[in-house]
Write a structure and sequence with these properties.
HATPase_C_sf; 3 helices; Histidine kinase/HSP90-like ATPase domain-containing protein; Heat Shock Protein 90; Anti-sigma-factor_SerPK; alpha+beta
Length: 133
C-alpha cells in the first residue's frame, strides 16, 4: 500500500501526509484482521486510487456483516475486542458492504488522501457508513 500511495502521489504531484498513510494502513490491517477472525479468511484484497480517494476492498467468505458493539458487555465488563470496525468507520469517508455472487462479502472503505480527513471535527462531505447493524 505504501508503494501504491507513493506512486500515485508522485504521478499526481500531490503529497499525502504520513497521517494519511497511517490511517490507510490501519484500515487495511483492521479489515484484513476482521476477515481472518470473523469471515473465514481473506478471499480478495484490492487497493485503488481514484481522484483524491483511496478505495480499499477486502473480501471474505462470510455473508454476515460487521456490527458495532458496545464497549462493555451486558455485565458491564469492558470487551477485549470489537474496536476494529469503529476504527474503520471513523477513519473512512464511507464504508460499503456488499454481498458477493458466489457467497461472502466485500467491504470497501474510502479513505480521503489529502487534506480532507474525516477525523477530528465535522465529518467530511458525503461521508456515509452503510450496512452497520
Amino acid at each position: 500500500m505504501r508503494r501504491v500511495l507513493s506512486e500515485q502521489s508522485r504521478t499526481r504531484g500531490t503529497a499525502c501526509t504520513p497521517d494519511t498513510l497511517s490511517d490507510a494502513l490501519l484500515v487495511a490491517s483492521e479489515l484484513t484482521t476482521n476477515a481472518m477472525l470473523h469471515g473465514g479468511g481473506v478471499t480478495d484484497f484490492d487497493v485503488e486510487v481514484v481522484g483524491q480517494n483511496l478505495y480499499l476492498s477486502v473480501s471474505d467468505r462470510e455473508r454476515r456483516r460487521p456490527v458495532m458493539l458496545d464497549p462493555v458487555d451486558r455485565h458491564g465488563r469492558r470487551r477485549c475486542s470489537g474496536r476494529g470496525w469503529p476504527i474503520v468507520c471513523r477513519l473512512s469517508r464511507s464504508v460499503l458492504v456488499s454481498d458477493l455472487p458466489a457467497g461472502g462479502k466485500r467491504v470497501t472503505a474510502v479513505i480521503p488522501l489529502c487534506g480532507d480527513s474525516p477525523v477530528g471535527g465535522a465529518p467530511a462531505p458525503g461521508r456515509q457508513h452503510r450496512n452497520r447493524t
